[in-house]
Amino acid sequence: MSYRFLIDQVLCAKAYLLLKNGLKEVYGITGNPVFEYVKHEKPVLRDYPDIHFNLSHCHRGIMCVIDDMPIGCDIEEIESTLDIDLCHVCFNDSEVAGITSAADPCVAFTKLWTMKEAVLKLTGDGISDDLPKLFDGDLLQRVHFQTVVDRNNGFVYTICQDSLKSTHYQPNTIPY
After folding, report:
1. Cα separation, 128 vs 5, whole angstroms
2. Which residues are bridge partners to 58 per DSSP?
3. Ramachandran category for residue 109: left, alpha or beta (phi over 0 → left; psi -120 to 50 → alpha)
């Protein structure tokens, strides 16, 4: 409950309940999960090291993904205006050009942002100053993204997995 605002505390609690429900449905695990924290404060299940999960929330939805391999996810609201200064902080010149030339730049920004955050949550690296360089190199060759734009509820979510490993995912989202 380290979030500053009450709404974020409530959303975090809802994401936790979604995790509990997913663990029960997918793995038959009941009770409260016990967490340990690894690199960059990434939570893992202390008693189930082979079960991987990731949580995300925004003011329009919460999300939980569970897998037998590392997995990352992010859900973000689609903003009504594009912050071009933020684009230049988060994305390289080519990515900014793609965003600004897109039919809906706000959706393009949100899609790319959720992809970057989901892959960072997959790897456990956390947000850094190297966001514009994140997709340089071979990273995109070894990950798989599933991105969904939900215009009705005003959010985008992305699930990211290591494409070199055989996995399944259990997306479970609740927009509200």
Report:
1. 23
2. 61
3. alpha
| Residue 74 and residue 158 in contact, taking contact as beta carbons nearer than 8 Å | yes
CB 105 within 8 A of CB 98: no
> How crowded is residue 92: how many other Cβ atoms within 10 Å of its Cβ?
15
Answer for the pair 105, 129: CB distance below 8 angstroms, yes or no: no
Q: What values do phi and psi take at 8, rounded to 5?
A: -70, -35
How many other β-carbons are positioned within 10 Å of the β-carbon of residue 101? 9
Q: Model confidence over 16-41: pLDDT tens digits?
A: 999 999 999 999 999 999 999 988 78
Place of tokens 């259990």: 170
Q: Are 66 and 20 in contact (CB under 8 A)?
A: no
Q: What is the pTM of this model?
A: 0.89
> Could you tell me if 171 and 21 are in contact, meaning their C-beta atoms sit under 8 angstroms apart?
no
Q: What is the DSSP string of 68-131?
A: SS-EEEEEEEPPSS--HHHHHHHS-HHHHHHHHHSSSHHHHHHHHHHHHHHHHHHHT----TTG
